[in-house]
Specification:
Oligomer: single chain
Number of domains: 1
CATH architecture: 2-Layer Sandwich
Strand order of the largest sheet: 2-5-1-6
Low-confidence stretches: none
Helix content: 10-25%
Number of helices: 2
Structural class: alpha+beta
Mean pLDDT: 92
CATH topology: Alpha-Beta Plaits
Length: 112
Amino acid sequence: MKKIEAIIRPEKLDAVKDALSNIGVKGMTVSNVLGFGNQKGYTQIYRGQEIVTRLLPKVKLEVVISDEIADEVITIIVDTAKTGKFGDGKIFVFDVANTIRIRTGEHGNDAV
């Protein structure tokens, strides 16, 4: 099993979620996060004061899936979330040793 964490633009969340649902991804965790990378934030003027915002709002999407569909999920996230500009995000892939569904006690891929 693989855990895929994707940091994406907030406005791309619905499109990515719908695309993953279409291939049978049954569950995901979504968190609002702040961060910066090459985008470096932005500067704005508010009531005559210059305000520098270094941390930008992003969305972290987490899914645990079987190894067989990991490459397909990664491709879908990249294709759906990509704008070609700084700040599109990153994807991290982790190996998952086991998954247990608390309600039923199922283990492994059955619990995903």
